Amino acid sequence: MRKLIEFRNIVKSFDGQVVLKGVNLNINENEFVTLLGPSGCGKTTLLRILGGFLEQDEGTVIFDGQCIDNVPPYRREINTVFQRYALFPHLNVYENIAFGLRIKKTGEDIINQKVTRMLSLVNLEGYEKRRVTKLSGGQQQRVAIARALVNEPNVLLLDEPLGALDLKLRKEMQRELKRIQQEVGITFIYVTHDQEEALTMSDKIVVMNAGEIEQIGTPLEIYNEPVNAYVARFIGESNIVDGIMKADYRVRVDDRIFECVDKGFRPDEPVDVLIRPEDIDIVKPKDGMMRGEVKSVIFKGVHYELMVETKTGTSKTVQMHVVTSHDLNNPQAGEKISANDFYVDSDDLENKEMTDADFISIANAQAWDDENRDISLTRVKHNIEKVPGVYSITFGTEKGTEITVKVHVVHPEYVEDARHNIGISALDFFITPEEIQESMAISTDLKTWASAEAWNLQDDSSVEITDVKFDFDPASVTEGSYEITFATQGREYKVETTARHEVGDRVGLNFDPEDIHVMHKEVADA
Amino acid sequence: MKSFFRMSYPYILWIALFIVAPMLMILLYAVTRSGNGTITFHFTLENFARFLSDPTFLKVLWTSLRIALITTVVCILIGYPAALFIANLPEKRQTLMILLLTLPMWINMLLKTYAWRGILMNFEIESEIKVFIGMVYDFLPYMIIQIHTAIAKLDRELLTAAYDLGANRGKAFLKVTLPLSVPGIISGITLVFLPAVSSFVIPKLLGGGNYVLIGNLIETYFLVAGDWNFGSAISLIMALIIIGSMYLTKKLDTGAEEE
Questions:
Q1: Torsion from C-alpha of A370, A373, A379, A385, nearest 10 degrees
Q2: What is the rounded distance in angstroms from the CA atom of residue A515 to the CA atom of residue A262?
Q3: For an interface test with B, which of A80, A99, A145 has the most B Cβ atoms less than 10 Å from its Cβ?
Q4: Which of A74, A118, A160 has the most B C-beta neighbours within 10 Å, making it the best mutation to test the interface with B?
Q5: HEC profile for A359-427?
Q6: What residue spans define the domains of chain A?
Q7: Is there a contact between A73 and B164 if contact means CB atoms under 8 Å apart?
Q8: Closest among A457, A453, A430, A435 to A445, alpha carbons compared
Q9: CA-to-CA distance for B173 and A432, rounded, in angstroms?
Q10: Which residues does chain B have within 8 Å of residue A51's beta carbon, measured at their own beta carbons?
Q11: Which chain B residues touch A151 with a CB distance below 8 Å?
């Protein structure tokens, strides 16, 4: 195939924000090329530079062996199907399609012949006299394609043309576009953020991220051999886990070593390991290379999507003391006040500047008048010290309504899980049954009440607590002590299977060495 | 819905009292002879016949229409490029320009016209030209604002599409911007032609005493001659002409859209 378009080191920024960081890309004749990436990755900008609607800051665009940097858009042999179609509302379907031909002063009979042919190519025969504003999204789309193709360009640019259509129509138009491209045999450059669209239609996919090209390849290459976790995540469903390359063909994940078909890594190089959900087989636990528990099952039509946990997360258990609240009544002022005892860890007192507002919040202190209106707590007195022990704190209103509660200052209690590099902490806490009953999102509130936190031991970054276990019924909880366990995400694999499994099943997971794809770690963004 | 409708009662009353009732009275005056009693009316069409059969009156009517027409055309010719220019400015500057344009509209028309009279007194120009200058000056902002609004709400992507399809700037303007701004031009015409055809202050002050337009004619018959019946008839004829031309422009507008 002959090279038709060449982008050389294209740089473009808007208002000081760099959207293209030196893009190099070759596009051949008659190719269906897709620029794929999330919004803001620069794909549309690249397309607009090729169309001539934007000027690059640096670099050159070569078209058919010639630099076209100074060629205005109307003299480029390129036509565009715009994102919102940009059909001319004052012209009917026929005149919209004839627009380009009329500009070129084409004879009426030839216009008629070409427009008619285009209408049949996009299956819109009989729509000549319709107003474009009265057409459906799919029909407008077809008119936009016909209007561009009638000029017989060498390249057709399509800027997310199916974005506004519903799923069924989108699928239909995907097939349609591919057919049209094969029929007219010109280069299509297609911009989308939809990976499925890219996979179905393209000869070549260009995966872009933050103004740079991550990978260029056929759909099969991109799917089976993504160069990094970013591409793997963008295309298709994926399990991406941290691993260490022990030697050629041998990769360690968690504490197991798997055979693979990848080589050429440094010994002990940290890598990303990709296993596609459809490549994992579910077997009996004793036959599996890994064992785990089914955590969730989602029915997806042709298959089930299972989440299988092969390793539990790091966890910490605390006591929840449920006590009935003791509202204090101050009849003289017509006010009531309440607050809970609370725990606070000595490290927090040391490291954070705890304000009165923080204490009010932790103690859930509040005051209200006879008509149930909130009254602000203006006075907070306490004798809290940073040494563990029991102290007291008094909250009061302007009118002198006061309540005193106990403050337990305790040593911080961490669970540190060195093997998985995760630390987790949480504190015992006091709470009233009413507060539990009123909670809209009990797991989230429990995390807040217990000040539960998890973090990465290496870089101190925060780690999500995904699991909150408790064995009381929030609607009917009574006084007493309850255990709450907070845990981070364990190792979970997404598996696609046609067999039915229940949540809680113990299963084994198997995959072949060629189903494992080892990728270099992405270089952290500077 | 019903309670909302009730909110319009004062408005309806207002219209009935100050618009519909006077109109009916004009109609009544136009088809009667002077010297009506409170109960007896002498119905007649002679007021209309008098106007339509007298070449002097018809000439005045023709002059009025001609002046209004020329004023409108001049307003379009000056207003369109101005509106186009403003619409291509950055947004903040557009607001400023529109503000500057509308600023003279806040000044009383009489004052402005007197000012023009003072200025134009020193020049040896035909009185008709003076009238044009005054009219165009007064009505131009309406035209510019209407056209500007139409151009400003144009989807820029349409121009990009036109370039993409091979149109240079000139052709893109002729084939996209211009046809799509027609509704703006038409509402501009409505806002300029109608007041221009019935204006009487400007021709009176700038055209000198002997320059009579239909507005002046009506004024004279009502206020000087005291012939309310004939004045009403002329007003009615004017109203018919205005309604007719509004109908035509409306037709033109929808016609352009349905093309």
A1: 100
A2: 11
A3: A99
A4: A74
A5: HHHHCCCEEEECCCCEECEEEEEECCCCCCEEEEEEEEECCCCEEEEEEEEECCCEEEECCCCEEEECC
A6: 3-231, 244-280+511-526, 315-488
A7: yes
A8: A435
A9: 72
A10: 164
A11: 165-166
In terms of CA atoms, which chain B residue is nearest residue A97?
B165
CATH no., domain A3-231: 3.40.50.300
Asked if residues B189 and B68 have their Cβ atoms less than 8 Å apart, the reply is no
Q: Cβ–Cβ of B256/A90 closer than 8 Å?
A: yes
**CA separation for the pair A345, A327 (Å, rounded):** 26
1.10.287.80, 3.20.20.60, 3.40.50.300, 1.10.3720.10: which CATH number matches B59-258? 1.10.3720.10
Are residues A90 and B259, on separate chains, in Cβ contact within 8 Å?
yes
- The verdict on domain A315-488 having CATH code 3.40.50.10090 is no
Q: What angle do CA A49, A10, A204 make, to 5 degrees?
A: 75
Structure tokens at B212: 């009579």
Option in B166, B180, B256 nearest A104 (CB): B166
Instruction: Report if pTM > 0.80.
Output: no
Contacts of A88 in chain B (CB under 8 A): 158, 161-162, 175-176, 180
Q: Please indicate whether, in this complex, the C-beta atoms of A99 and B257 are within 8 angstroms of each other.
A: no
Given a contact cutoff of 8 angstroms between Cβ atoms, the answer to whether B200 and B216 are in contact is yes
pLDDT tens over chain A, length 526 residues: 788 999 999 999 998 899 999 999 999 999 999 999 998 899 999 999 999 999 999 999 999 999 999 999 999 989 999 988 899 999 999 999 999 999 999 999 999 999 999 998 888 999 999 999 999 888 998 999 999 999 989 999 999 888 778 888 888 888 888 988 998 889 999 999 988 889 989 999 999 999 999 999 999 999 988 999 899 988 888 898 888 888 889 898 877 888 888 888 888 888 899 999 999 999 998 888 888 889 889 998 888 999 998 877 888 889 899 988 777 888 888 888 888 888 888 888 888 778 888 888 888 888 888 888 888 888 888 888 888 889 999 999 888 888 988 898 988 778 777 767 788 889 888 888 888 888 888 888 899 888 888 888 877 888 888 888 888 888 888 888 999 999 888 888 999 998 888 888 899 998 998 889 999 887 654 3
Triad B80, B64, B58: Cα angle to 5°: 145
Burial pattern A106-145, b for ≥16 Cβ within 10 A else e, equals: beeeebeebbeebbebbebeebbebbbeebebbbbbbbbb
CB-based contact, B154 to chain A, within 8 Å: no
Question: What distances in angstroms separate CA A500 from CA A72, A298, B143, B193, one per listed residue?
Answer: 60, 10, 72, 78
- Which chain B residue shows the shortest CA-CA distance from A82? B161
Alpha helices in B122-166 (DSSP H): 127-152, 156-164
| Strand locations in A429-505 (E) | 429-431, 453-456, 462-463, 465-470, 480-488, 491-497
Query: Nearest residue of B to residue A152 by CA position?
Result: B165
| Identical fold between A3-231 and A315-488 | no
Write out the H or E segment, with its range, that includes residue B191.
helix B182-198
Residues 6 or more apart in contact with residue B157 via CB below 8 angstroms:
A82, A84, A86
> For the CA atoms of chain B, what is the radius of gyration?
22
